Amino acid sequence: MSADAITTLPARSAPLLPADIRARLAMLPRVRLACLPTPLHEAPRLAHHLGGPRIFIKRDDLTGAAFGGNKLRNLEFRMAAAQSLGADTIVVELDQQSNSARQTVAAANKLGMRTILVLQGAMPDDVQGNLLVSFLLGADVRFAADRTEQRQLAEAALRETEAADGTPCLLNDLPMFDEGSAFAYIESTLEILEDLSAEGLEPSCLYMSSSGKGQAGQLLARELLGADFQVRGITATAEFSDIPARTAAIANRAAHRLGLDIEIRPEMVDNDDAFIGPGYGLPSDAGNDAVQLFARTEGIVLDPIYTGKCAAGMIAHIRRGDFGPDDIVVFVHTGGTPAIFTHNALWTPQT
Ligand SMILES: Cc1ncc(COP(=O)(O)O)c(C=O)c1O
């Protein structure tokens, strides 16, 4: 995708309209993969239980293919970039229980491409959750002990595909790998605002599980529109030492590609790392309680690795009195639900 193809707008003296922003997004190469727009559901029983603001849930777990999730949105941009390179085989480096891996294989299947997943970790005795679904989808899965071996195996997969006259694309090395998520979450945010506006409402705060990519898009949407709702990311990983700087950098690269003259600064990024619990990929007590509360009040299934921890953050903030009854809080459900099967002991009744 060439940034040069999109004319840079003059310095903004006034906020943009949603239609202006959508027109910018429409200039990006994209393939349709997700069921969009996703619904926005009010969660009155959850709100009543917590005794704070009105709560709405943006159902990005319902994006369609293979249990859905946030990644199908960004794959619309990533896969278009891979297609423009003539790729017939997607190679991608991710973690053993990656939601992104599952959704990438589903997207590649829909586009008639093969996928080679190079995952950090080992083949487990009990194949469950995302890994199970990736196998079902037909991925060629290879395991690597660490990042160095992961890169070696990915490069070997590229050579092997070329030797068989295929055209591979190493997804992680696409120049817009991260920006794809920012584009996707500009659009998701516009959907939220439009749905609320149809009811005469405006959000006070958006919550989303974030390690920087999607939250970059939410911030861009807010700033471009000149809106003043809060954007609170709750991270599930300690992998990135400075998520505000990372989020701002992704947002600014995405804005540049869209030809938009705007700057997101790290101090504008609200990202809370207090809910990681025992570590990335490991359930936390607060996260598990949140998963159970959403399920038992609203019939909505979160996951204990990302969305449960984000919900734990939102619940803690509501309980400490951050919002009043007139506030509108939107929880963005980014998916990840197959993880409940990986952690089945958490909800298996003890006899
Ligand atoms: C369910 C879920 N939520 C949130 C995230 C974080 O999204 P981002 O990388 O856009 O910050 C991920 C990332 O893998 C995820 O799988």
Task: Tell me the total number of β-strands.
Answer: 10
The helix-and-strand class reads alpha/beta
The biggest sheet amounts to: 6 strands, mixed
Determine the CATH topology of the largest domain: Rossmann fold
Bound molecules: pyridoxal-5'-phosphate
Radius of gyration: 20 Å
CATH class of the largest domain: Alpha Beta
How many distinct domains?
2
How would you write the strand order of the largest sheet?
Answer: 1-2-10-7-8-9
CATH architecture of the largest domain: 3-Layer(aba) Sandwich
Tell me the quaternary state: single chain
Low-pLDDT segments, ≥5 res: 1-5
| Distance separating the two termini | 57 Å
| Helical run tally | 12
Q: Give the overall shape.
A: globular
Mean pLDDT: 94
Helix and strand sequence: HEHEHEHEHEHEHEHEHEHHEH
Strand content: 5-15%
The helix content is: 40-55%
Molecular structure report:
Strand 7, helix 8 and strand 8 form a beta-alpha-beta unit. The radius of gyration is 20 Å and the shape is globular. The protein has helices at residues 18-25, 44-50, 71-84, 99-110, 129-136, 147-163, 179-198, 213-225, 243-257, 285-298, 307-319, 339-342, and strands at 40-42, 54-59, 89-95, 114-120, 140-144, 168-170, 205-209, 230-234, 270-272, 328-333. Helix content is 41%, strand content 14%. Helix 1 runs antiparallel to helix 7. The chain has two domains: 12-69 and 177-340, Rossmann fold, CATH 3.40.50; 71-173, Rossmann fold (3-Layer(aba) Sandwich), CATH 3.40.50. With 351 residues, it is an alpha/beta fold. Bound molecules: pyridoxal-5'-phosphate (PLP). Pyridoxal-5'-phosphate (PLP) is lined by residues 69-70, 99-100, 181, 209-214, 306-307, 334-336. Pyridoxal-5'-phosphate binds next to helix 4 and helix 8.
